[in-house]
Amino acid sequence: MANKRELKKSINFVASDLFQECILIKLIKRVDDAKVDEILAEILYMQDEFLARANHPQPGAVKAYYRKLYSDFGDAVGNILAKMQAL
Known about the structure:
Elements (H helix, E strand, L loop, with lengths): L3 H26 L3 H23 L6 H25 L1
């Protein structure tokens, strides 16, 4: 990790990319709006959660904290992608 600013930019970039992809799925495939809206809300919640976690690391083992943050972020993105593919 270079710094917190780059981490937050990456989180925002991935979240906006997922959001755009979900909107495209909604427009092109004509899937159930309620399911898509649920995924969109989950994306926004994920973005807020990880930005808050990046801003306020726990004191002590900072490297381990950010490793866990990266791991959790990858898992959350994977879960959202799986839900998007299920549409």
